[in-house]
Amino acid sequence: MANNAVHYFYVLLCADGTFYGGYTTEPNRRLKEHNEGIGAKYTRLASRRPVKMIHTEKFATRSEATKAEYAFKKLSRLKKEIYLKQQQKNLGQLR
Question: For the whole prediction, is pTM greater than 0.70?
Answer without folding.
Answer: yes
